[in-house]
Design brief:
113 residues, 0% helix, mainly beta, Immunoglobulin-like, nine-stranded mixed β-sheet
Length: 113
């Protein structure tokens, strides 16, 4: 089941977030066997339009300890125009691709010093 979660970042800031995967009873989901993670930002879900930003396992995404169910996303500066986009986060475990999260990815205008 895909869940909705909205994210925000200020333009030209780095985007850093941890996602912890839990089941409906709040038990941590063991990510052992994970072979890929994709985080895509586009104008619409499912990459109907090409991804404007795309990160994958080893390229901005890490899974430090699969047994604690946490995926870490750490990207360089977000230089997209300040507006609202859509994103999705999917994993591939044992050859099965699942989209876990999707939602709005809002880039806020830079804050003047």
């Amino acid at each position: 089941m895909t869940q909705d979660k909205n994210l925000r970042v200020v333009k030209n800031d780095n985007f850093v977030v941890d996602f912890q995967f839990v089941d409906i009873d709040d038990n941590v989901i063991d990510l052992t066997g994970i072979t890929d993670v994709e985080f895509n930002v586009a104008d619409d879900y499912g990459l109907v339009d090409p991804a404007l930003l795309s990160f994958s396992l080893g390229d901005g995404i890490s899974v430090p300890d699969p047994t604690d169910g946490t995926i870490k996303v750490s990207t360089p500066q977000i230089t997209l125009d300040a507006r609202q986009y859509k994103y999705d986060l999917s994993t591939t475990i044992n050859s099965v691709k699942i989209t876990w999260l999707r939602g709005f990815f809002t880039v806020l205008p830079e804050v003047a010093p």
